[in-house]
């Protein structure tokens, strides 16, 4: 697999910048809170005007500090989700290089490609009630199959409603596009897009895009991967006697 690692800087620079500034802001606020703390005793907070002056520093700095902490948490979640898109893009590209040369219709191959990406992104998707989209609903059978697989492998399976909500969000937020085909001389390039949600609108309105239908903010991200084309290495693509270019020898 070929992955352009500059994407982590080029496509994510606003988030990286906000994350770095947030860390700096946390240090500055902690220093300010330390200077605002009473140096003699916490009992000084109860001493008339002295106590009020000590409390004033906390009242001014604390709300700013909480907002900066929320900014750092939100941007950290976005960066972790970006890492998840690289795995999802690889899984989708692997599906593309298998299904496109298999002889199925392009719609079927694209559906398999999207399904692989959605399943890979579900662990990173949001299951919050205020992040539930109103369109692009998945098939109930797909959700049921995913939850059955989740119960088989998870030590402590999540609630079916929560896992289903995450799957529905991933199905809405994921988009895949590929140039996969039957030409074995051309590598397969796949582009995955994902809408990473913000949990706080106060942060999302500065860094994200609003989905007006659902009312929440998200950060659009793109990941591109390239895989070798696994189409048959001959001009007669997918012949009946050698499907996918593999010679099958019957067992006597």
Explain this structure to me?
The chain has 252 residues and is α+β, with helices and mostly antiparallel strands. The protein has one domain. It has 7 helices and 5 strands, in the order βααααααββαββ. The protein has helices at 7-10, 13-36, 48-99, 106-121, 140-153, 160-173, 201-207, and strands spanning 2-3, 174-178, 188-197, 209-211, 216-227. Strands 1, 2, 3, 4 and 5 form a 5-stranded antiparallel β-sheet that branches. The protein starts with a strand and ends in a 25-residue tail after the last strand. 29% of the residues are buried. The mean pLDDT is 80.
In brief:
The protein is an alpha+beta fold and about 250 residues long. It has 7 helices and 5 strands, in the order βααααααββαββ.
Give the SSE map.
Elements: E1 2-3, H1 7-10, H2 13-36, H3 48-99, H4 106-121, H5 140-153, H6 160-173, E2 174-178, E3 188-197, H7 201-207, E4 209-211, E5 216-227
Antiparallel strand pairs: 1-5, 2-3, 3-5, 4-5
Helix pairs in contact: 2-3, 3-4, 5-6
Average pLDDT metric: 80
Give the overall shape, derived from the CA principal axes: elongated
What is the terminal-to-terminal distance? Answer: 38 Å
Helix content: 40-55%
**Roughly how many Å is the radius of gyration?**
25 Å
Q: How many beta-strand elements?
A: 5
